[in-house]
Design goal:
Elements lengths: L13 H21 L3 E7 L6 E7 L6 H16 L2 H19 L1 H10 L4 H14 L6 H16 L4 H14 L9 H17 L11 H26 L18 H23 L19 H6 L4 H25 L5 H8 L7 H20 L1 H14 L5 H18 L3 H8 L3 H6 L4 H15 L9 H11 L8 H29 L12
Length: 513
């Protein structure tokens, strides 16, 4: 009797899936444009403060002009894709920290006597608090999360999944006003002035609800990681250099730590002094054309926004270099240069993924399908005749849906903020409306490949994947579903509790206008 071998089913590689999505988007844009699909809504101009009738229509790329656009912009779009440049710069710093042994020594010292659950909770909390760094946090904490779990003798893929879930689900939570919150407030207030020209929102107007959200979400995510995800991850075969029984802190390694931490501390003190206003020769890195401190720090033209990725990369290089000098793991300039490129080994596959996703995002944005959907759903809220809790829940659901096609919170809220006057008439304050939107955005932003930093998560999963089968888009999204579901339940519960009980959102702010 002949034995029939069953072929192992291999899912579609992410690059191929992204190319398929490109083709589907192009064809869909042609169909929607042919049927003149569009949405007209009233938005408030940030310049004049008056209503402007705006029409969002689908742009067809399924024609000759569309084909010309794709061919003429793809290369430039890839070269200017911010994820690409930021990732390469940060990997230079991480590479020397890994190659010199700095990261392994520090992580092992900090975690060897700690419980796995404690390490996971602290890391989740750090990632959530890192929302103040904006999108740069994805570039830094995803690769570091992989190494944290790797050196802790756990599957590094679990560290990647944990980091991405914490960063996305926690993106709506911050004790301090972030640059994103500041940009959203501009849209919120200009729309609130239609209803109340003197409306103000405190910089600490969200602090109470944020503190509760940070504490609860960090507990929930770490619980899912330890009690659900960890049990479902495949066994990881560690490289020989990572299976030594116990790290011994020798005099050389201790000297390396002293050198590196000393250099890092001096560097940070100089940098921090230059972002503090009002002291002698201080505040040199602030944008004084802005009024709020957060805008002076994070405005588009500020040094912080333009150069922070390099600031972090230099810090990493200093930590790795001075550790290597002290511990004698870096003995000459050749070893230093080799260490810089350590994390870039095998980056070819990551570059291919980034090229594919940058092309897909560029094509999808050009079709304007996302903005049409957002405008349509904004009209749904404005025409719903709901009030109070029902319209709050509707905004939450709409925010989740809009994020799938317009993941950028600033771009999404620039359209949905047109609902603020309607919400104020329905008894919902502008600050509560903004929080509801942020909560909805955080639920689904980790589930859409249109989100530019999703590819960082996917690329590092592929890097540490030891299976013969590739990590597909479907699998990457599936890993995030438990976190998204739990976050949805938590944020919906918080919306209900705050509305029903009427607790203050923060200093000088409440659910009602």
């Amino acid at each position: 009797m002949k034995k029939h071998r069953t072929k192992e089913k291999i899912g579609l590689h992410p690059v191929m899936m992204l190319l398929v999505l490109c083709f589907v988007t192009i064809v869909l844009s042609g169909i929607l444009s042919f049927f003149d699909v569009q949405a007209t809504y009233n938005r408030v101009s940030t310049l004049t403060g008056e209503y402007v009738v705006t029409t969002e229509a689908v742009t067809s790329l399924f024609n000759l002009s569309g084909l010309k656009y794709i061919f003429t912009t793809t290369v430039a779009n890839f070269a200017n894709f911010v994820v690409l440049s930021h990732l390469i710069i940060i990997l230079l710093g991480i590479g020397i920290m890994v190659k010199s042994g700095f990261l392994k020594t520090v992580i092992t010292m900090l975690t060897k006597k700690s419980k796995k659950t404690t390490v996971t909770y602290v890391w989740v909390l750090i990632c959530i608090l890192a929302s103040i760094m904006g999108d740069l946090a994805y570039i830094i904490f995803i690769p570091l999360g992989a190494l944290l779990f790797l050196y802790g003798k756990r599957n590094p893929m679990l560290g990647i999944i944990t980091s991405f879930a914490s960063l996305t689900c926690g993106s709506a939570l911050s004790i301090f006003l972030t640059s994103i919150d500041s940009s959203l407030l501009d849209y919120t207030l200009v729309n609130a002035y239609i209803f109340d020209s003197g409306y103000t929102i405190s910089s600490f107007g969200y602090i109470f609800i944020m503190l509760v959200g940070i504490i609860l979400l960090s507990l929930i995510i770490s619980n899912i990681v330890e009690n659900y995800m960890a049990k479902r991850m495949p066994k990881y075969e560690f490289p020989e250099e990572d299976i030594e029984e116990e790290l011994v802190i020798t005099k050389k390694k201790m000297r390396g730590l002293i050198f590196s931490l000393g250099a890092g501390l001096i560097y940070l003190l100089i940098f921090i002094y230059n972002i503090i206003p009002g002291l002698p020769f201080s505040g040199n890195l602030l944008d004084y054309s802005q009024e709020l401190y957060i805008d002076k720090l994070f405005s588009y033209d500020s040094f912080f926004s333009q150069g922070f990725v390099f600031v972090v990369a230099v810090l990493f290089v200093l930590l790795g270099l001075f550790y290597g000098i002290g511990a004698k793991t870096i003995k000459n300039n050749k070893e230093f240069v080799d260490a810089l490129g350590h994390s870039l080994n095998g980056i070819g596959k990551i570059l291919v993924m980034i090229f594919a996703v940058s092309t897909f995002i560029n094509i999808f944005k050009e079709t304007n399908i996302g903005n049409v959907i957002a405008a349509t759903l904004a009209n749904l809220i404005n025409n719903s005749n709901f009030s109070g809790l029902p319209i709050s829940i509707l905004l939450f659901i709409v925010s989740i849906i809009v994020t799938f096609v317009v993941p950028s919170p600033i771009s999404g809220w620039s359209t949905l903020a047109s609902t603020v006057p309607t919400l104020m008439q329905a008894g919902i304050s502008p600050e509560f409306a903004q929080i509801i939107f942020r909560f909805g955005n955080a639920v689904s932003i980790g589930l859409t490949p249109i989100f530019a930093y999703f590819i960082v998560y996917l690329a590092f999963l592929a890097t540490y994947n030891q299976s013969s089968k590739p990590i597909t888009l479907k699998a990457a999204i599936k890993y995030q579903l438990p976190f998204a579901g739990a976050t949805l339940a938590l944020f919906l519960g918080m919306i209900l509790v705050w509305y029903i009980v009427g607790m203050p959102l923060g200093v000088g702010s409440s659910v009602a206008p």
